[in-house]
Amino acid sequence: MDKAKESAAGSAVATGLRGVVAASSSIGDVNGEKGELIYQGLNIHDLATKSTFEEVVFLLWNGRLPNRAELDDLKKNLASSYEIPEWVRGPIEYFPKKAEPMDTLRTAVSALAFFDEEARDLSREASIRVATRLTARFPTIVAAIDRARNGKAPIKPNPNLNIATNFLYMLKGELPNEFDAHVMDVALILQADHELNASTFTARVVAGTLADMYSAVTAALGALSGPLHGGANTAVMKMLLEIGSIDRVESYIKDALAKKKKIMGWGHAVYRTDDPRATHLRQLSKEMGERKGDTKWYDMTAKVEEVMKREKGLLPNVDAYSASTYYMMGIPLDLYTPIFAISRISGWTAHILEQYANNKLIRPRAEYVGPRNVPYVPIDER
Ligand SMILES: CC(C)(COP(=O)(O)OP(=O)(O)OC[C@H]1O[C@@H](n2cnc3c(N)ncnc32)[C@H](O)[C@@H]1OP(=O)(O)O)[C@@H](O)C(=O)NCCC(=O)NCCS
After folding, report:
1. Which of 112, 189, 232, 349 is placed for a possible disulfide with 264 were both Cys, Cβ 3.0 to 4.6 Å?
2. Residue whose CB lies within 8 A of the most ligand 1 atoms, among 228, 307, 344, for a mutation test
3. Distance, CA 48 to ligand 1 centroid (Å)?
4. How many contiguous H segments (helices) and E segments (strands) does the chain have?
5. pLDDT in tens, 78-120
6. Across the beta sheet with 36-39, what order do the strands follow?
7. Does ligand 1 come within 6 angstroms of the Cβ of 234?
């Protein structure tokens, strides 16, 4: 290893960058030992029980909760951007009906850049406006994707509704009941930021080259789509459906563990105790089941939790109980990760703003483990 690498990396490589501090940030912090999550100093438990997603968006971007006038202003700006340009909405109808919604979302978000004259203005003022447009438009795009693939016309966003309610309204074509809208709002709060997770780190790496916000967010969407990150919530529901009934949970999980399979929705790269987001989603999933008169999926998830804790000492993460919660709301399985994105766009954009404000190109080193001094053999002699 050369001298620069030795001093940068020490002697050991941190596989997967575990434990490596790669940025200073005041946006969010995860204390894996205590199971604590804070956004700009505020505890997630307070935010999940007392706040709204729009307040959290303001908090992440500005470092403090808004007063009433500031919140009204943000809501007005978001609502005035809910609609997506026809040039983005139109093509969604022609994308393959079988396309993964995350792929369609990624493509549509990338295309939004063409219609934003401020896309390449990286000043804080312009970037906040771009972030507002992105946050406002994610739900409209996701709802339009789902309707288009089902041969349905998109529902025009209603500027009088908040992001969570509007999303469910555009998805189903009818106003959601108050509880469902509340659950969606809390789910958006819980997933808004999570420090340097894979997609946020991706966004910061792209922003660190001083590329525009759309590029950073498009890349983050790609990172979020993987099953080890945002894709886990869909995988949880697929697993529950495959198991089918609570009496099969124990044998299914034990069998999967014996085959060294990973159980999606369990384990975490940072938390070594309860994931505080799972605490709220567990309760919401239970209440959702009780209200809808069917706690089967909640009960099954709770049983998986019991078996995983006993067999592996692993606890549920944010995805474990969001799966049954969304399922009981009648949301298609492959929209769970796009919903994660509808929430996480707030955290991504907060991190991009922070990166732009104090930028340094992110460029780590690799420990080269390949051969050296390999003789070059001419093509005809190989
Ligand atoms: C999130 C995740 C990638 C974190 O992984 P990590 O910190 O790198 O931990 P590792 O993958 O090194 O796992 C450590 C041990 O626990 C096991 N483990 C971790 N998560 C597991 C899971 N979900 N199911 C079964 N075993 C698991 C690993 O197999 C490993 O066991 P070993 O030491 O016997 O090899 C991992 O827990 C996982 O893949 N979970 C499922 C996907 C998921 O829910 N992702 C959403 C995260 S919010």
Report:
1. 232
2. 228
3. 26
4. 17, 3
5. 999 999 999 899 899 999 999 999 999 999 999 999 999 999 9
6. 28-31, 36-39, 42-43
7. no
